Amino acid sequence: MEEKFGRALQSGPREFLVLVEKHQSRPDKFALKTALWSWSLHASASSKSKLCDALSLATSQAVFAFENLSDDNETPKTPSPPKKKRRKRSSRNHNSEAEEEDEEEDDTAGRNRRRRLGLLNALRGYAHLAQLCVTHPEKEKGFFPPWDVFPVVQTLHEKLVLFEEDVALQDCVSGMCELWWRESWAGRESLIAQSLPCLLSKSLSAGRKIDVHRVYAMREAFTFFDFTDEESIHDLKHLLIRCVVTPLYVRTEEGRRFISFLLGLNAQLANDVLAIIRSQIPFGRASILEAYGQILYKAWRVAKDSSLHEIHNSCMQGLVEGAIYASSKTLASSIRKLLQGFINQRTQEGVEALLFRLQEPILFRALQACIKQILTRF
After folding, report:
1. Which residues lie in Acidic residues bias regions (predicted)?
2. C-beta neighbour count of 275 within 10 angstroms
3. Contact 59, 21 (CB under 8 A)
4. From CA 196, how far away is CA 209, in angstroms rounded?
């Protein structure tokens, strides 16, 4: 198979891409990688550029066809115009015509389904080929310049949400977007609008630590979103809020770091996250509350301006008051579990002073009230 790929590369990009579409088994992919990387060592820069251009064109055409096919499937059927009254036909003829219409509809649906699967298969092959180009072991020497492959990745990224039925394709495209971000290649900011929600959604549904790691590695990309635009950020914000109450995020180190990062991302988002954390106090497990305490402490250490104000006034002050004035021992104990993240770090610079500032006025008022009650009795 490797020789077949090699001959196709020598023949021309189009023949090679057709071969890539048809052969996507694991052994075929290994043969493709070997053939492509071997060919790239001797091929001219113009030949590589032509291959990337052909790949970009084929990807755009396949995405366009797939999108139109999806639109056709979602478009409701328009009601047919009223038919003129005709002479009543026999029931046998009527039943046969109805059966023929049903068969035609089934045939159309079957053709669309096969066409859809064929396009997804082609896109999967194109995405894998693009991935091989950008992960070339000699990419630093410019064997496949990222800017030549960028149009392919950008086209796939823009329609990433359409490929939800093909997990392998989504993973491949998301992986390339992550690579673009890690390598700081040109255009990386345009490859996060669809890939980040996809990564978040997968981490919340799959429940694997590796997915949390991938999200945390991309955390700085979230700073490029406009969190003041509620309409455009609503779906992403909902996913981020879900991270706060997902056990996998709360129990893993990188998950807790990511939630701490969210507290410094935007003041309104921080307010929402803190509200979620406070809502967990009455019925949260001790381990979960302690984890939230660590999250708050880490966020406080790096918080600035409005985010720091939210942590101090919207959360910490209320927690200290709750620990003192709690209506039950159980509730007070739960709040102290949350504050344990700060209490355990009281030897660190600024922590003891913070706890003192938060507790002093509350304790002073409480002691004053007790003294007045005692004095009025005498």
Report:
1. 98-107
2. 13
3. no
4. 16
Question: How far apart (Å, rounded) are the C-alpha atoms in residues 249 and 244?
Answer: 7
CA distance linking residue 166 with residue 147, whole number of Å: 26
Where are the alpha helices (H) located in 207-263, listed in sequence order? Answer: 209-217, 230-245, 247-251, 253-263
Residues 343/355, Cβ–Cβ less than 8 Å? yes
78 burial type by CB count under 10 A (0-12 exposed, 13-18 middle, 19+ buried): exposed
pLDDT digits (tens, 9 = 90+) for 323-370: 877 778 888 888 888 888 888 888 888 888 888 887 777 777 666 655
Task: Note the residue count of the chain.
Answer: 378
Q: Which tokens go with 246?
A: 């997902």
Tokens of 175: 């992986």
Rounded Cα distance, 80 and 84, in Å: 12
Q: Is 336 exposed, middle or buried (0-12, 13-18, 19+ CB in 10 A)?
A: middle
Report DSSP letters for 187-212, one per residue: TGGGGSTTHHHHHHHHHHHH--HHHH
Q: Are 128 and 172 in contact (CB under 8 A)?
A: yes
Cα separation, 360 vs 310, in Å, equals: 20
Query: To the nearest 10°, the Cα dihedral for 257, 282, 206, 117?
Result: -120
* pTM, 2 dp: 0.81
Contact assessment for residue 227 and residue 268, using Cβ atoms and an 8 Å cutoff = yes
Q: Using an 8 Å Cβ cutoff, are 352 and 312 in contact?
A: no
